[in-house]
Amino acid sequence: MESWERNVWALALVVFIAFVGFQFFSPFLPLYVIELGVTEPTRVALWSGALTAVTPAVSGLLGPLWGRFADRVGRKMMMIRSLAGFVIIVAAMGLVTSVTQLMILRVLQGVIAGFSVFAMALASVSCPKDKVPVAIGRVQGAQLLSVAIGPAAGGYVASHFGLRYAFFVTAGMCALSLVGLILLFDEGRPRAADGAAAPTRESSFTLRDVLGLRGFSSCSSSASSSTAGCRCSCP
User: Fold this and answer.
1) For 188, which of 1, 21, 39, 93 is 20 to 30 Å away at the CA?
2) What is the pLDDT of residues 185-207, one digit of tens each?
């Protein structure tokens, strides 16, 4: 097995373990809201929706910022940051005494998130250019498989030990994933056949550069004129 293949399989394993943990408690958030003292059905629905939405919302807003940091310190380091934060924050979710405290922790979870994005980025740069689809497919497959396993495993833990233990197990799996990432994954450029580092080409384009490309403006105007005469009733 080549070095890039070992890296990709290690990354897929890390993603699988972490995402199985993430799915441990997410299906049971409404039940946890009830356990924290919210009993009115409308308020339970409102809090459950807000708790589910706030983490990806904050993560999406801060994604470009963490991307800039990743360019400076490395994508692996950003994943380590994210997993280490998850261990602390998710474990704290199992100790909260009110739904407001849980909301604050969910916001903090969104602040340090970005794990899956950096995992895909690492998969794409840790292998030769012609193997990028294979690498991304393996990591994406591990993530999707975890969605099928996590809720069932989380349901078993919650039914036998209580809802709070689902958070503790998630924190433990994030810690296991963190150890695996540190020990198994080597963030280095893939090697060419002669053993030298594979050449990379970095380029950056601005909107002005794109608009100045030969033929771009004419193609855009022709596309606009063709779509202007089109009348479709797509849902």
Assistant:
1) 21
2) 887 655 444 444 444 433 344 44
